[in-house]
């Protein structure tokens, strides 16, 4: 999830981490137990004058399988569920509109299950998770193959 946003003009920072759960300062190992309630997420700080929120949503939809409530590609479990966290009512409304537009487009045969939820406390992941795709290009390439095939099937016309 980091790479496409990391390469987008108008993004000041992108941090991998965890949000939405009950454990304070969770670690990756904590989140993997599926007992914390946290979802792995990215926090994106951006300039809305250079990068409209709607564009962030468009990028997001093209990185996930919005029809899979139980993970993303090779990453399985509730901590990988597809969710958009919003910080304002305006973002909430834009995300809901964007999800409806995608659902109505007929691009997917299954229902869109991505949830739209209020942002909660965000806990940055450990340093070794930050910019993972740059630090571990071999894993990124292997994992991106599945994602890439799916995205090509559903977004090749973009």
From TrEMBL:
Q: Is-annotated flag, keyword Oxidoreductase? A: yes
Q: Which UniProt keywords apply?
A: Oxidoreductase
Output the superkingdom of the source species. Answer: Bacteria
Q: What is its EC number?
A: 1.8.4.11
Q: Which Pfam families match?
A: PMSR
Residue ranges annotated for the Peptide methionine sulphoxide reductase MsrA domain, each copy included: 2-140
- Quote the InterPro entries the UniProt record gives: Met_Sox_Rdtase_MsrA_dom, Met_Sox_Rdtase_MsrA_sf
Ranges annotated as spanning the membrane: none
Catalysis: reaction(s): L-methionyl-[protein] + [thioredoxin]-disulfide + H2O = L-methionyl-(S)-S-oxide-[protein] + [thioredoxin]-dithiol; [thioredoxin]-disulfide + L-methionine + H2O = L-methionine (S)-S-oxide + [thioredoxin]-dithiol
Name the Gene Ontology molecular function terms of this record. Answer: L-methionine:thioredoxin-disulfide S-oxidoreductase activity; peptide-methionine (S)-S-oxide reductase activity
What does the UniProt function comment say about this protein? Has an important function as a repair enzyme for proteins that have been inactivated by oxidation. Catalyzes the reversible oxidation-reduction of methionine sulfoxide in proteins to methionine.
Family (UniProt) = Belongs to the MsrA Met sulfoxide reductase family.
In terms of PANTHER family, this protein maps to: PEPTIDE METHIONINE SULFOXIDE REDUCTASE, PEPTIDE METHIONINE SULFOXIDE REDUCTASE MSRA 2
Which protein are we looking at? Peptide methionine sulfoxide reductase MsrA
Q: Can you name the source organism?
A: Enterococcus asini ATCC 700915
> What gene name does this entry carry?
msrA
């Amino acid at each position: 999830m980091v790479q496409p946003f990391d390469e987008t003009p108008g993004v000041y920072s992108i941090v991998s981490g965890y949000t939405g759960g009950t454990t304070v300062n969770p670690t990756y190992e904590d989140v993997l137990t599926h007992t914390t309630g946290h979802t792995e997420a990215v926090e994106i700080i951006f300039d809305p004058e250079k990068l409209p929120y709607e564009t962030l949503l468009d990028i997001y939809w093209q990185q996930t399988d919005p029809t899979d409530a139980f993970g993303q590609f090779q990453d399985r479990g509730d901590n990988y569920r597809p969710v958009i966290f919003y910080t304002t009512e305006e973002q909430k409304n834009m995300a809901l509109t964007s999800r409806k537009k995608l659902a109505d487009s007929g691009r997917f045969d299954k229902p869109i299950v991505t949830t739209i939820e209020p942002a909660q406390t965000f806990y940055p992941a450990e340093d070794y998770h930050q910019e993972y795709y740059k630090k571990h290009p071999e894993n990124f390439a292997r994992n991106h193959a599945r994602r890439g095939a799916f995205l090509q099937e559903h977004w090749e016309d973009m």
